[in-house]
Automatic annotation (TrEMBL):
Transferase listed as a keyword: yes
Protein name: Sensory histidine kinase UhpB
GO molecular function: phosphorelay sensor kinase activity; protein dimerization activity
Keywords carried by this UniProt record: Kinase, Membrane, Transferase, Transmembrane, Transmembrane helix, Two-component regulatory system
Segments crossing the lipid bilayer: 43-62, 74-92
Amino acid sequence: MGSVRTSIIGRPRPLPGPTRRTAPYTLICDEPVILSCAWHEEFWTAVATSAWGYGVSLWLSFRNTTTMREDLQAIVVWLGVYALPWVVGLALRNTQFVERRRIAARAEAQRREIAAELHDNVTHELALITMTAEATRIDPTIDKDDALVDIAAMSRRSSAYVRHMVSLMRAGIASPPLSFSTEIRNGLARLADAGFSVEPEIGDGVDSISPAMSSALGHIAHEAFNNILRHGSPDGLCRVTARADSSGLRATFTNATTTAYHGDDLGITGMRDLAEGLGGTLDTRLSDGRWTVRVSIPDAMVEGSAS
């Protein structure tokens, strides 16, 4: 074995047995360790391993080189050998980081959607239950049996909706999309059933907007009608307008109210986020006892036009 001639870089020279065992160990074991450490952000370990392996490899190479050119060649070659696991490890780390951000963004979007859904539906039903119970307690002319029937019905709807949301969350399915025109019609019917006087002005163009935009606007309309039912006064006139044409979409919801304004709540914030997500705006105003929500979406988001 002593007569075997071995070389790492440079001219062949006889190497002692321990040196022949050290070189393969450096080549085989260091690179996976460096790659793994760079991948899992254990940078100090990767740096120490790289420095140790690079130094040992150069030392072994310099023992077998005889010219400056061979020394420079060894430096460059070993630099590439130890840079490669860094490049691969950092690339894997970046891929993992991007995937984590994508998952986090999806989870955040689902969290916001669930919060909005619960606020738009369950919170509204609970508010109606509270209002019905308080009115029944204060007003002796209200039939208590009828009030209890209404409360039970609203409680069942809330319970069913929560079960539905939980089943969607377990299955990883998003809530079904809404339709702006459908929510407008349903909202007007809800106001009429609650005793509000309504003056609607709905253009034909609201049926021609894109499905994605219609779903977002449907959530806005649903929350706007919930706010009217929760905070509005049936004694005043409600005005609901919606028009979509080549210049864009504009919708307003106006109602009388005696409720003081103390800043945007979760519902208003969610409505504004949806409008801004479509590239539009949502403005609110309380003036002379009338509350107005105004939505404006640019023409680029509208498909088709109203004649």
